[in-house]
TrEMBL record, chains A, B, C:
Membrane topology value: Multi-pass membrane protein
Recorded GO MF terms: ammonium channel activity; ankyrin binding; carbon dioxide transmembrane transporter activity
UniProt entry keywords in alphabetical sequence: Ammonia transport, Cell membrane, Glycoprotein, Membrane, Transmembrane, Transmembrane helix, Transport
Gene3D superfamilies per UniProt: Ammonium transporter AmtB like domains (1.10.3430.10)
Subcellular location: Basolateral cell membrane
Quaternary organization: Interacts (via C-terminus) with ANK2 and ANK3; required for targeting to the basolateral membrane.
Protein name, UniProt field: Ammonium transporter Rh type B
SUPFAM superfamilies in alphabetical order: Ammonium transporter
Organism per entry: Catagonus wagneri (Chacoan peccary)
Protein encoded by which gene: RHBG
Transmembrane segments: 15-36, 67-87, 94-114, 126-145, 152-174, 180-201, 213-233, 253-274, 281-298, 304-325, 346-364, 394-415
Pfam family name, one: Ammonium_transp
Gene Ontology CC entries for this record: basolateral plasma membrane; spectrin-associated cytoskeleton
Lineage: Eukaryota, Metazoa, Chordata, Craniata, Vertebrata
């Protein structure tokens, strides 16, 4: 067939060989370095005077499973809105995240839980691994449809390392708070992907323009992704916050922020839409911006009112971004952002970081009481003032933008290596180049890619 | 286009303005009244000799997330069975519930947790807010396809208040037990919607008759909704019951009741179907009646056998209702019940209330032991006999029917205001009037609404 | 219509009557034998010095709900890949599992929790009932599309009993460990279904060949099933393991095993695919083999490295099985395995049992410390050596294969009873014979089964 005949000789083996090499390498590294931690090792648990009920599993696992659902169901189906790229959207999400979580277990492990020559893993490392996979999938959204799976795996190989380094600088060196990852996940993932998309800019992409839109059913599949992301975002932001009121408050703030971004998205979508009609792209994406924007501040004393305002602004900015900024991004800045990650993760992520600066700067011992120690330990210990914490937060955003931009640039150069199998301009956003696509039983023939009449018509 | 040209002048701005006004109003009310409660405030938690593990988050949050999934995924996709109303079903569910949960936080807060001038919120209020959103979505089901989104928001504005008042009368004034909401949620939501549907009766609705059915794929999308509602219903009924055996028993009873309603639905559907073939409408809806029917009694000592019998009856009544009663409802009573909420929520809700009367009346200290205090506190304290509790339960049903009917009537009058943007009879059950609908890539042209050949055919 | 006219006279009543009889019988047995256990009975809880927080509900319910999602959403949608059998796949899964969980409550109850004349039920029995339903659905996968719903219910009636007996022999008599059911669920369910499929072999099945494949959207529906199975498999394997480190470690091992089987599936699928293109059948199924293969050993000290290797092998074996073994299975062994359960559950299940033999045989007190007592109680008590435990595990596999084969043979003979309503060879994999199937609004007429033009074309 036309699609596959372009993939000559050795290129065809790129995906299987890369999968095998990467899996082999992580397996060897796991053998050498990775061990169960105190909570998962039969010989080490229980320690001290803990009972089984104290195992972290019972405090984190339900949230972990919600996050896991967001990564694999949420991202996968959200990106399945394209009419002819549903297989790739769902299944490359699956592949990329499955690799990223292994690789980030290693990278984050070396940076955070390496002692006595071993990485120690358990519930927290699993959540962190899923978070890192989330950042990779955000970047994937920016270049969706324009790269092959082998290229994506290489991107993940690089991005996971830079994600780990950036997170280490922010959380461990700068003492920045970012439980839900407005900076470390959303801002980082978005700008990494956008810069990468700039580097692999395709001037002839209009050849695939007709596949760049949705069809009726693909929009409904995408809504599966949207809704699962939306309902479980409170778990995402609260998955790694301190136990007790911290986790509880984070979930609550995120819940209200999301509800407000939903209302503002509908309002703005109807205002700016042609003939005041709503646009599914806005609903699928901008309604989620409320989760991104409180990623840093949801664990703080944001107040329920603050959560509503933050969500409202994020939904507004995001919807307007889809309408007015995405076209400019392509025409002026040569950034082809397939899923609009700039609107869902980029701008709301930066906004969320700035909101974190504000809320951290306003922190007082009055407002937090004894809880100050768990939200801002350095402030509670007197090592920093609230203003200093705020400045550190701001600097963390700056660092993240640097890491993301440099990383995205490097990633783009890597993906432009001419030996890599990349879809031609005319075959972007098309499953058939990578997948055995079944014949449609009742559809008419669909042009050159589908020459035969299916059986059922006979 | 035909659909949108009917929406002249100022009417086009109804949805965005209403969203903005409602969001602005709730935000201001949140600023003035809403505060974190003892479990979510950094300065107030932990209180007494509680440890972080005692935070209610860990006892309620997994159930909350299941309920949240039911509201947004369950209701949204269940209503996506219509062939040309999938966008509206899923996305208006999203909009309505996002507004309803904010608004009900306020209404229920004033009625239940208002002290020292503030409403205090946390996990319980979030679950209650989702429950209230559920009642609004049940009413939405009755009028699905016949109203615009601005009308729906106004309906929610009214219904949330009446829901809160009815619930307050039942739970706080009458001491009625209704953890899973057979009365407060299902009966109330269904009859509110049905009376409202009666008031906005459209005699010319057969103009849209051809869009009132499903297509193959839309029925599968609807099954996503059904199955998620079915599996998580045990969490719905048990989300707010007393901790310990109460929550455990409620989940168990609901699980068995649902399994029995599934078998009776398949049996009855095959019995009454044309050529004994099964009907997806029955499976999508009546199989869920087992969850509704034990909404009041699942926390009581219903016994596993009682749960099976209740579920069996509910599935039977519901399936027969779809077959024989829904047509009469429209032809005789002029109630156009799009989703058949009378069969899934109305009749099983009333049945569930009556079952609650029966099981409460049979309560003895022998059967409940020390647990009597948590299930029937007034009986345990000697303030009531079991018979008196049963009579209070019965009166609660009566009150609910009054609130629902009067409220639905008022709601109908509100929605009939001629200034409101309502779809014409010929454009009911049609997404295109509210949504940018993508062209189908491989479908033939579909009449006047889709004049252009899509790109991919070129 | 053609489909239904073949179903003459009394046969039409088979499904409704069977549903009613089975539901009636289980209800009576529930009335006589089934009671709440100590954790669900208001009069018995709390016992000893337990507080409400100690109720098993809080340790098991989130995992139970994940398992429940896998059974009803996972299996149901995974099997919806067929182009014209989506209603039956999702809805017969629903029916079969709803019956199986009631029936297995009784069967497993008599074998495991029967004392003082009563079966006592709670969270553990609910998880066990869902597990048993899982085995029935695996067998369903082997014969998908070739049997009517009444036949399936009879299969479940038999299989649940044999599942219970086999599990009793393994867990209670032999002291075998199999928390995630590599043997009791996957191996048993697969070989029961495969032998049954052999007995009901249809030589003329090519008459339905054109319906045996997927269409684009049905493959996406199937991916809903795959992804939910994949993300929640850690909960499946850990749902019934000992609390604390056991549950934690089991989830962790399964998580990594699945990530490795995903990478190996993509690698192998691309290697063996035509023109190196990926095949959705492999991704939908083989990527899950990592969950099956650690079903026995995930609670043991498998090590994270061991989990990766196990998952990698399982994904490889499973993908190669689909490519090379499934065709032989039909042509040489006359086993028509619709969903390829031999590749997903059969071979990985046996592999998982053997891995359990290996890991059990390597168990030392050094590696498990005090935890040896909860993983291998008989070894810890000195009643067995690790080698003896390994041999018992091996014997358990042998017993399972015997039970499955004999049971599947009996099941096949039962389903071949000429009085049972079975679809003709030309109507296999076709919903229309059992379901009212809606007209497609925009599709062309589809041959003899769809003679009328739909309304919307008018």
């Amino acid at each position: 067939m036309a699609g596959s005949s372009r993939r000559a000789g050795g290129r065809r083996l790129q995906l299987p060989l890369l999968c095998l090499v990467l899996q082999g390498a992580t397996a060897i590294l796991f053998a050498v370095f990775v061990r169960y931690n105190h909570e998962t090792d039969a010989a080490l648990w229980p320690w001290g005077n803990h009972s089984n009920a104290d195992n972290e599993f019972y405090f984190r696992y339900p949230s972990f499973q919600d996050v896991h659902t967001m990564i694999f169901v949420g991202f996968g189906f959200l990106m399945a809105f394209l009419q002819r790229y549903g297989f790739s959207s769902v299944a490359f999400t699956f592949l990329l995240a499955a690799f990223a979580l292994q690789w980030s277990t290693l990278v984050q492990g070396f940076l955070h839980t390496f002692h006595s020559g071993h990485i120690h893993i358990g519930m927290e490392s699993m959540i962190n691994a899923d978070f890192c996979a989330g950042a990779v999938l955000i970047s994937f959204g920016a270049i969706l449809g324009k790269t092959g799976p082998a290229q994506l795996l290489l991107m993940a190989l690089l991005e996971v390392v830079l994600f780990g380094l950036n997170e280490f600088v922010l959380l461990s060196l700068l003492g920045v708070k970012d439980a839900g990852g407005s900076m470390t996940i959303h801002t980082f993932g978005a700008y990494f992907g956008l810069v990468l998309s700039r580097v692999i800019y395709r001037p002839q992409l209009e050849k695939s323009k007709h596949r760049r839109s949705s069809v009726y059913h693909s929009d409904l599949f995408a809504m599966i992704g949207t809704i699962f992301l939306w309902i479980f975002w409170p778990s995402f932001n609260s998955a790694l916050t301190p136990l007790g009121d911290g986790q509880h408050r984070t979930a609550l703030n995120t819940y209200y922020s999301l509800s407000a971004s939903t209302l503002s998205t509908f309002a703005l979508s109807a205002l700016v839409g042609a003939a005041e009609r709503l646009d599914m792209v806005h609903v699928q994406n901008a309604a989620l911006a409320g989760g991104v924007v409180v990623g840093t501040s949801a664990e703080m004393m944001l107040t329920p009112f603050g959560a509503l305002v933050a969500g409202f602004l994020a939904g507004t900015v995001s919807t307007l971004g889809f309408k007015f900024f995405t076209p400019i991004l392509e025409s002026k800045f040569k950034i082809q952002d397939t899923c609009g990650v700039h609107n869902l993760h980029g701008m709301p992520g930066v906004l969320g970081a700035l909101l974190g600066v504000l809320v951290a700067g306003l922190a007082t011992r009055d407002a937090y009481g004894e809880g100050l120690g768990s939200v801002f330990p350095l402030v509670a210990e007197g090592q920093r003032t609230a203003t200093s914490q705020a400045l550190h937060q701001l600097f963390g955003l700056f660092v993240t933008l640097i890491f993301a931009s440099v990383g995205g640039g490097l990633g783009g150069l890597l993906l432009r290596l001419s030996c890599l199998d990349s879809p031609p301009d005319s075959q972007c956003y098309e499953d058939q180049i990578y997948w055995e696509v079944p014949e449609e039983h009742a559809d008419a023939a669909q042009g050159p890619l589908r020459p035969e009449e299916p059986d059922t018509q006979a």
